[in-house]
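Record type: ASSEMBLY
Status: queued
Input:
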Amino acid sequence: MDHILSIILFTPLVGLLVLLLIPSRNQRAIKLWANLASFAGFLACLPLVAAFDPARDFQFVEKASWIPTLGASYHLGIDGYGLLLVELTGLLGFLSILASWSAIQLRLKEYYASFLVLQVGMLGVFMAMDFLLFFVFWELVLVPMYFIIGIWGGPRRVYAAIKFMIYTLIGSVLMLLGILMLHLEHFRQFQIRSFDVAELMKTSLNGNLQWWVFWAFFVGFAVKVPMWPLHTWLPDAHVEAPTAGSVILASVLLKMGTYGFLRFSLPLLPDAAKDPVIINVMAVLSIIAIVYGALVSLMQTDWKKLVAYSSVSHLGFCTLGIFALNPAGIAGSILQQINHGISTGMLFLIVGVVYERRHTREIAEYGGLMRVMPVFTIVFLIAALSSMGMPPLNGFVGEITILQGAYQMSLNWAVWAAIGIVIGAAYLIWVFQRTMLGETAAKNRDLLDLSAREIAIFVPLIAWAFWIGLYPKPFFQVLDRPVAQIVERVRPGYHAAHKIANPLSGTLR
Amino acid sequence: MQHLWLIPTLPLAGFLVNGLAGRRASKTFVNAVAIGSVFLAFLWTVKTLFALAPLETPHIERYFTWIASGDLRIGFDFAVDRLSAVMLMVVTGVGLLIHIYAAGYMAHEGGYYRFFAFLNLFMFFMLVLVLAANYLLLFVGWEGVGLCSYLLIGFYFLRKSAADAGKKAFIVNRIGDFGFSLAVFLIFVAFGTLDFGQVFAKAASLPVEHTAGLLTAVCLLLMLGAAGKSAQVPLYVWLPDAMEGPTPVSALIHAATMVTAGVYMVARSATLFTRAPLALDVVALIGLFTAVLAASIGLVQNDIKKVFAYSTVSQLGYMFLGLGAGAFSAGIFHLVTHAFFKALLFLGAGSVIHALSGEQDLRQMGGLRSKIPVTFWTMLCAAVAIAGVPPFSGFYSKDEILLAAHHHAPWMYWVGVITAGMTAFYVFRAMFMAFFGSYRGRAHAHESPLVMTAPLMALAALSLAGGKIDVPRILEPVFPRGEAHHSPALVAISVGAGFAGIALAWLLYVVRPALAGALAERTGFLYRLLYGKYFLDEIYDALVVRPIERVSRVLLWRGMDVGLIDGAVNGAGNRAQGIGGVLRKLQSGYIRSYAVWVLAGAVLMLVTVALAGGGR
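Status: finished
Output:
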């Protein structure tokens, strides 16, 4: 288990190297190999689940010197939060490659190569314990995603890809600036060059500096989440991206933003994070995202755009939970990030299924699909219910926990968030009605129901959705310590003051 | 351990078997699974209740911790006390009869297995709702029955009206759930737990003046939830539309069980409501207003199922009136008798519709008394029960409510009496229009098979004699009985109102049928107002639905998102281009140039930071 994280991280890369050796015209071999490699990558993630010890913080740690002059190192490790995101990435990375089998006909080799690079980048982001290493992976993700949208996307793919690139690059630059400020300040105080996150946490920053660094990070992370009003790249990117790209974008990439807030903004800048102005701004932006995203979603005529805007709304819940700054809010937020990965991933896959058959995403083009695609209808219904937070599915547990955390912070927050839930039900049930129920138009009469491969894509996601909904305990268990670490870092003594059992007390690191 | 979990799990198993294998299975197999699972659940309920008798204190079974995060700890726990025992008997008993009936009613419908799978799933969630030992688990059942209701209303999914009705039910219920979920959080914040036993114990131990404000808020929010589920003003509008579903669904979900969930929930929270007198008054007022409003609409409807739907809304209002007057056991008593006679009215209506090959319009019926006698006589039992004719079931429960209302505020009693008169009128109007006079339709009427008439007969017996089940006495350990308010005069007045209603219906629809039309002509505006259901759907549409659509589409999406935000971003780019010079490259679209800019920017900022002394 010593190098398990490196093994997981580089499995897709090994797959990529072999892939490059396969001749381009041998399309079947390329597809088979890409599926095999990503499946191996998924399998490699699984031992972590068994070996992970919820009573300890960062585990499977690896450290090697990387750029000694800068104090940057190849330093990997995961806590419970990282574990969940790595598993999510492993599963969805594989499923999105599996979902591309018949959808992608063009430049197969480049396509699958992009996905494998993407996989490395995403896994690295969630494993890196060195801030510079994190940044490298963060940027690494950008490139393949740009190509996936720009080459295999829809008619406006170039516009969407450039928009995606510009937004995220501006964010990255500011984030890098923040990282460098932290690095320099640390150097000034300790005379040691380091990008190690644990080391940087020792730096004492005055409030003013924390404030500026927070906003620098904010731009980087908020674009990625995306938080309102930095979200307008998202609908374009999603609509133009191929199905698998949308799935990865929604399920995993957006989580990099929330991950950044929780892993860096809060622990490194605790004073800024609990600044009332910042909390209020974050809450207002989150609430706007929740309600606004849901309302705009309601009015979409493009099925995929509807799902894209619903992401804005759902991620609003996640950021609201983060800035509740209490265990329920943060644990709920993390769980909801996973939930969003599962349910929105499914929703994008669902749009992909019909798009592949009819080559249109206009909701009005469909209707009455229940009659010709009964299995598909059930899958869509489960995905919609999971997304709208219907018990006993996963979304319910996440939303309820976030709401509870929000409630402790402010009644106002909870009320607005609850309104978002009502509208969330409305747009999903409406799109379900418009596409699945009613008379089947002639053009939809001959649509084929899900194939065995398509069913195989949905089954693990549905199973996971039920698991979290019915028995979320293991998930909360692995999150206990990381969440407590963040809360205690930002608000020392929180558990004691609120008479909640502190998961950190009594055990050594 | 009495294995309470078996009660809901049996129908769940039925759902899974039929859902997975029913498509290819025979109807006999589907029937056996669906009806058998509910029958077993019924048997297990009876067995459990016998084993637990006399059940004066709640019996609780804790299975596992469901959600545990920070100080939030929710168990997957079931509990049964006498209140849930009554509910269990109603749900499994009436549910069983309706399942049997449905086997006959749905025999020629497509999607047979799907129907029964959903019906079983509904039973599962309803039983979870009743058995839940905390608010969150109750909420699971609550949402689940809503989902099944949605699925079953839209069962004839090819019809747009059915799909629309399902959507409306779902969304209106969600508005109610918004209130419910906020109430749940308030309860948690206030008491640190959601467990019924602990919440009520803590609420009871705190001095009233400390908690009145909080509990009032909690109870009003709970009532919002109840108004959604139990179709009360202002959220009742979904229930009449819900009649698009197959008739057994109307009987089971939209009359006997699910719609009473709000009544059950408020009764369950009686400890909280009695400490929030203001909220209790609101409950009574909403109940009373709903009762009279819906009854008045029911007076003029011509669709037999719509008449009974408005009647259901009205009768649910009665139940809330009872709860609000502090007579919780009277409210539950009426819930029980209503389950008998309203299920019977719907199943009878289904039998009529079945006999006439789908006709639902009362104007196309008439004279069916001799053609479908079993349906007629059984429905008549329900009609006398709901009209409050002594000594049948509705008489007892309605009187308990009216007397409590009189004790609470005499004017409420009088409004209740007027409503009772209207109730008797519209039910007998429907009976006379359908079964008396001469046949006005074209279809060939035929009596339903035994599988349908047998449940009718069983329910008829319950409607007639059900009043003898002294529910208030059964519930004494849960709701201690205050002093009895006996007043023969008040009873006589309300019974008189019922008879007056019947007599008027007799006069207008049997003796002088022309008079009814003339009356409608004469009272043109009022008639149109009632027939148009006070145009509430149109008002909601104009005041709520369309403004939301417009704001979302025009202001938020087209205006804010595409116009303002994107416009600003693109505008900035364009202006930069217009100025020309270096910034122009920013929009060139070449990754290489972006990379250069990123690098340059980073270097620039690094230098700035370094010059500024590391940010100081």
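Annotation: Chain B has 25 helices and two strands.
Annotation: The longest strand of chain B covers residues 59-69.
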